[in-house]
Design a protein that fits this description.
Strand content: 25-35%
Number of domains: 1
Distance between the termini: 17 Å
Largest sheet: 5 strands, mixed
CATH topology: Rossmann fold
Radius of gyration: 15 Å
CATH architecture: 3-Layer(aba) Sandwich
Number of helices: 6
CATH class: Alpha Beta
Helix content: 25-40%
Length: 151
């Protein structure tokens, strides 16, 4: 199956986000965006595969791949994402923001997308840099085109 895009939502679940109570806002914002009419208009270009991953010291899938073909599929993904709030923030060490680990997990997710995507996108949301050396972050970003977008 061919899709217009495969998108991995990489969401920072580090201590600074969780302790500032930003985690629910981050999840709700993504869910509202996916369920929006504007996102529905994007589907005219073709289906979009979506997955969501939380990261801190480690990374963990929040919502497995869903191929979104219409508004009902988008609502389903948004609902699944909102359901993760009932479990509370993921326990991922929550001491730092490990960008290299997040990028690698995102790239691994994209490699296993459920469709042949015309565009592969990593959407990274964070409140700041972690403790890793700048060179490690740049090495991870170097796997992408500098904006987190592949192909």
């Amino acid at each position: 199956m061919i899709c217009a895009a495969a998108v991995v939502l990489l969401m920072d679940a580090s201590g600074s986000v969780v302790h500032a109570r930003q985690w629910p806002t981050l999840v709700e914002g993504h869910a509202r965006a996916i369920a929006s009419e504007e996102f529905g208009h994007l589907l005219r270009a073709g289906p979009v595969a979506l997955a969501a991953v939380a990261f801190a010291d480690d990374a963990q899938p929040l919502v497995e791949w869903v191929v979104v073909r219409d508004a009902n599929d988008a609502q389903g993904f948004a609902h699944a994402l909102m359901q993760t709030l009932r479990q509370g923030p993921p326990s991922l060490g929550m001491t730092s923001t490990n960008f290299p680990r997040a990028y690698r997990e995102g790239l691994d997710q994209l490699a296993h997308a459920p469709c042949a995507a015309e565009s592969k996108i990593l959407d990274v949301v964070t409140d700041g840099m972690g403790p890793e050396p700048r060179a490690e972050v740049e090495d991870a970003r170097g796997l992408c085109d500098g904006r987190g977008k592949l192909g």
